[in-house]
Please model this.
Amino acid sequence: MTMNKSRQSAFIIFTIIMIFFGIFLAFPLVQLFIQAITTGDGISFALFREMLASEQLHQAFMGSFTISIKASVIATLIGFIVAYAINFTNIPKKYKKFLEVTISLPMLSPTIVYGFVLIYTFGRQGFLTRLLGFQLFEIYSTTGLLIGFLIYTIPTAFLLINNSMKYIDCQFFTVSELMGDGAIKKFVSTIFMPLLTVLGISVVQTFFLSFTDFGLPASIAGNRPLMSSLLFNQMIGAVPDFTRGAVIAIAMLLPAIISASVMLYLRRFDVKYDKISTVNLKKNPLRDGIFAILTAIPTMMVVLTFSSLFFVPFVESYPFNMGFTLRHFTSTLSDSNILRVYQNSVVMSLLTGLFGVILAFGAALLVRRSPLKKRWANIIEALSQVTNAIPGMVLGVSFLFAFTGTGLSNTLAILVISNVVYFFATPFAMATQALEKLSSHYEKTATLLGDNYLQTLVRVIIPNCKKTLMEIFSYLFIHSMVTISALIFLVGVRTSTVTTQVSALQHFNRFNEIFVLALLLLATNLVVKMTMSLIVKDYRWFRAAKRGEVVVKKTGVNKPKLRKTGASKHKLRKV
Model:
């Protein structure tokens, strides 16, 4: 009887999720295809043939494809080098921490800001150019775009590779030592081959990010033809053409679907390990020195690029009057319109985090911890892959066609919904991985003790997944604060967000206000990220103290540090 009730409840939740994605994913995409094939004479594919033969579309596609391939390969290589330096060298621990923080810093700012900080750092009047006496590279060029995309994609590549590198099985190293392998063969067999799938996923993922990004091309692409710029100009240009825009959106969707399919295929060969492995590293000053120098290059690139963000708003008029001032901050933050825009972003991100956590965790519970039939669970997993394959701009255009003229049009609600759909895949993956690590006997034990499923969920499953829930909320909040691709088509006069406001301000060359808003975004995201980390940390110590445990804090490979939590008899637990 209890099992039947649980199955009925699971199916009801499954139905609600299907209805949600049916309305806010399937329906908008269908409207996109209808718009693309509808002409004044009815249904026709003539525009598809015309657009596919267009030289402008060919140039935009090849321009986006070429630079995205370059960025993905280089970003993966740099991400690998930084991850290797952190996990397999003896460079100072403080420098390792500095690397992790610095490499991840760009994720807290919108990509449209990257172009402006590049201009103020490496442009003809950039502070570094003035300091050196010559310009290192032309900003409005392939090199400028490539560096911008690298700053954008290196954090993603690093996080993917670094996470997998921590779980490499130590037995590989032992076997390689016993076999007497040389340095190159040892590297290939113990590190490169176990990470081959992740490296492939990193290339595909970073390619997808670069190919579909709108923020960076909007700031420094100029007249260079790229797919995202072409779509934006067709939809919100001087002479909008929605039908041609729909065709471009579909053309932009195809490479994204191929990328997601390749990534899904590669994940089939991914090897998962249950625990983090530690390796006793031999002293090798030459290796450590080389990797210290290699990792300093991307780190300095990030530091130099974003350094202009921290001093340009504090001078009177860069580069003509370098006197210190807070005038730009006071004037920007006293503007009621700017404050409303910032409030919109915060409210939108909070709601995205809240509803995104509920949707992602609820879907993960159905897939991993419910009696739902396998074929229904597979549908939810397939949906997560579909959302992962849809570029933000395509989703925004689809929502524009589907909901213009409805009660959702130009509201914060549609912004929240688009974000929840767009960012669904990663939180869902995070939640399913966390639930996989929990014992499968919790529900059975709770049933024997007389608890129903809801009580088990509240008392056992959610408390054990609190860290993951906080991480999901943090992920959704931060990405909602910095995203622009979908929102650029959906905001109204009263629902503009910080990122869309930045896009509008660039047309009036109001860069001081842009930099102030960028710093405000960065500070907000840092506060949220640190708050979530503190909540998780305090909750962990509280639970340990309540159980009378000593928490072992890892301070080195073989140097645990014990922290007493106030009990007379202690158990040991690694964290």
